[in-house]
Amino acid sequence: xxxxxxxxxxxxxxxxxxxxxxxxxxxxxxxxxxxxxxxxxxxxxxxxxxxxxxxxxxxxxxxxxxxxxxxxxxxxxxxxxxxxxxxxxxxxxxxxxxxxxxxxxxxxxxxxxxxxxxxxxxxxxxxxxxxxxxxxxxxxxxxxxxxxxxxxxxxxxxxxxxxxxxxxxxxxxxxxxxxxxxxxxxxxxxxxxxxxxxxxxxxxxxxxxxxxxxxxxxxxxxxxxxxxxxxxxxxxxxxxxxxxxxxxxxxxxxxxxxxxxxxxxx
Length: 266
Ligand SMILES: C[S@@+](CC[C@H](N)C(=O)[O-])C[C@H]1O[C@@H](n2cnc3c(N)ncnc32)[C@H](O)[C@@H]1O
Hints:
alpha/beta, 10 helices, 2 domains, single chain, binds S-adenosylmethionine, seven-stranded mixed β-sheet, 14% strand
């Protein structure tokens, strides 16, 4: 797609879906959009937008495609093990020492809920008491709907859930699986655009995994700064398996374990 046409498509998508593609890498996004149009039955973007204007379901399909909300429970299990063995024990110790009433955790870009529920299971299992304040946000309303509905999740999505967790935290009778209501009650789901909306603050842990891969470098930098602000000193940012902050000190972070960055205490 040519630049001028891309600008027009971007403007239509912003008006229609509220997603500003200028924060996403151009090349990749243009290629994705080209292949989306090729797969539709429409000959041009003009025809396509005229068609989906009144079709909410097609709008949701386009939104799903653009935001790519693939997820699973305990994605990259070895990193979750680091969370269990190195990060959470440290946060709990600090909570006791500083008399913080409870841990504050945020799953940013939570998609259909698997990451937030993984956090809820892990905290319950290691005995985080009282239960943490656990916020989970995403800009994709359709994804959040599945999260709030507690699933259903297929076999692939639960492949890293241990048999004992499956038994304790999921309704019997799967697949497909639903998380139990008492686990779901521990998570607050909310719609939020990380590139436009205000953030809450004072978090002990922000989990933002596999979200920034399609963002421009500028958008990533802004986001890292905002995450830094939203963490308490000594708090952690947990990124995706392939996401690295090349010079974390620029943003006030120190590398901790692989995928984990700690907000420096000044
Ligand atoms: C690949 S999923 C990652 C889900 C989960 N964090 C994981 O690692 O399994 C990426 C999610 O980021 C969300 N996302 C993309 N851009 C966003 C933005 N600007 N604000 C909030 N969420 C966004 C998408 O809607 C999608 O659900």
